[in-house]
Amino acid sequence: MTSTLVTNIGQLVTNDPTHDGTKLGIVTNAALLIEDGVVAWVGPNSDAPTHHIKKTIDAHGRCVIPGYVDSHSHLIFAGDRSAEFRARMQGVSYTAGGISHTVEQTRHAPDAQLLAHAQSLLAEAHASGTTTIECKSGYGLTVEDERRSLEIASKITEETTFLGAHVYPVEYKDSPKDYVELVCGEMLDAVLPHSKWIDVFCDKGAFSVSDARTILKAGMAKGLLPRLHANQLEAGQGVQLGVELGCASVDHVSHLSEKDIEALSTSKTVATFLPGAEFSTRSPYPDVRPLLEASITVALASDCNPGSSYTTNMPFVMAVAVREMHFSPEQALWSATMGGAKALLREDVGHLVEGAAADFQILSAHSYLHLAYRPGVNLVEQVWRNGLQLI
Ligand code: NIG
Ligand code: FE
Fold first, then answer.
1. From atom 1 of ligand 1, which residue's Cα is the shortest distance away?
2. Residue nearest ligand 1's atom 6 by CA
3. 73 CA distance to ligand 2 middle (Å)
4. Is residue 2 very low, low, confident or very high in pLDDT (cuts 50, 70, 90)?
């Protein structure tokens, strides 16, 4: 058995309310014991076990928080769309149309190039404190390109999502029904061995609610778990479809009606905000307050992709959520950790409780408040995943 004790933690965020009655479950002057990759004990530094400790890490009074659980990213692609970003910053509005440029480049990229690029984005994510990341396909849009995208995704994470229904590829522009049939049939069968989730981009310029329903149901019938891109570009029935089908999460949710909030509040579906997309498309930010008032579970994720949000940085996402979307710093941190875990139906990550994965970060700050208070500053001192130090 390998035991590591982290001592002298000034502020430990556990996300276990039993410690202090708050969602962040803060223990001050704490210690954390890790055995064989999982959390074995959490408590006051003065009560820390002393026997059989192989290694001790002194946190020097700093803050320790769970690793971020980034429940929404698109890391399998080639090329970038920086020219599109520049145009947007000069007033051009974002549409789903740009996705086809990435599809073109991704189809021409060899597997090794796609894998190396995804690994470099993963390393970036780790360096900013992310320890769990979901990854979608969606820039292949042929049977073979979606299959290999998911095979590559499965080399970097277990949270793999089939997004063959990202947009209609150009070659199916005039026969969209045939593409839906392909996604639900041959393409779905090809990606199954490498996929856990199924997702659809249900929005203006992408898939209708009725096609999204057909596609999600086809995936669910083959054992994939549903999640959905909904209400990013306009209001619509996407969120309600997500609730109807029991999606683990509906993502973006930038345009929410009272009916959407009502539907979410009576469901287990998580609402995942992706502020990086509003930032990079110069779109109005949604307001989290009506969701929190309705006791809806809210997650924050990066949406890392080359078009609408080319960042892997969860502290950036949290800072924007606090500044622009009325998250409290506490809610932002909870949403980026526990909220993400709930959006992925994971009980083993997002919190530091006995038996959970030892996925945590030591910050170079004494308080988690510095994450939003010091935007753009790298406050990661160490990152541990399954009890092993990554950074
Ligand atoms: O989640 N909204 C759909 N898909 C991505 C954007 C993809 C792109 O522009 O390349 C998103 O924002
Ligand atoms: Fe997305």
1. 303
2. 308
3. 6
4. confident
Provide mean pLDDT across the span 140-157. Answer: 99
Alpha carbon distance 39, 354 (integer Å)? 5
pLDDT digits (tens, 9 = 90+) for 223-274: 999 999 999 999 999 999 999 999 999 999 999 999 999 999 999 999 999 9
305 Cα–ligand 1 center, Å: 6
Render pLDDT for 41-74 as a digit per residue (tens, 0 to 9): 999 999 999 888 999 999 999 999 999 999 999 9
**What structural domains and CATH numbers belong to the chain?**
3-67+351-389 (2.30.40.10), 68-343 (3.20.20.140)
Q: Please write the tens of the pLDDT for every residue from 291-348.
A: 999 999 999 999 999 999 999 999 999 999 999 999 999 999 999 999 999 999 999 9
The whole-angstrom separation of Cα 96 and Cα 308 is 9
Ligand 1, closest atom to CA 72?
1
Considering only CA atoms, which residue is closest to atom 9 of ligand 1? 307
Q: Tell me the ligand closest to 249's alpha carbon.
A: 2
Give the predicted TM-score (pTM) of the model.
0.99
CB 352 within 8 A of CB 16: yes
Ligand 1 shell residues, CB under 6 Å: 74, 98-99, 102, 201, 229, 232, 277, 303, 305-309
Can you list the positions of beta strands (E) in the chain?
Answer: 3-13, 26-35, 38-44, 55-58, 63-66, 68-70, 130-136, 159-165, 197-202, 225-226, 228-230, 249-252, 270-273, 298-300, 360-363, 380-385, 388-389
Q: End-to-end distance of the chain based on CA atoms, in angstroms?
A: 22
Burial of residue 50 (number of CB atoms within 10 Å: 0-12, 13-18, 19+): exposed
Strand partners, 383: 361
What is the distance in A from the centroid of ligand 2 to the CA of 139? 11
Closest atom of ligand 1 to 102 CA is 10
Ligand located closest to 85 CA:
1
Query: Which helix (H) or strand (E) segment is 210 a member of?
Result: helix 209-221
pLDDT at 303 (0 to 100)? 99
pLDDT-derived band at 162 (thresholds 50, 70, 90) equals very high
3-class secondary-structure state, position 38: strand
